[in-house]
Design a protein that fits this description.
Layout: E1 2-7, E2 14-17, H1 22-34, E3 39-43, E4 49-53, E5 57-62
InterPro entries: DUF3107
Pfam families: DUF3107
Protein name: DUF3107 domain-containing protein
Amino acid sequence: MEIRVGIANIGRELSFETDSSADEIRAAVADALESKSASVTFTDSKGSSYIVPTSGLAYVEIGTEESRRVGFVA
């Protein structure tokens, strides 16, 4: 699933693919914001980690969990 994270005062968004479910991502962001944690960590499908300061979070866009269809639909 694709995740896009907007960070305040930065022109580009952070975009990556992850194997985590949408509920896991929502829970991680909600927990970090509710506990007033300094940062939230995301892990992509290749194993790389991204640490984003919670004070700079503008938005988190969570893609769909469905796989993309290939070909034409009649």
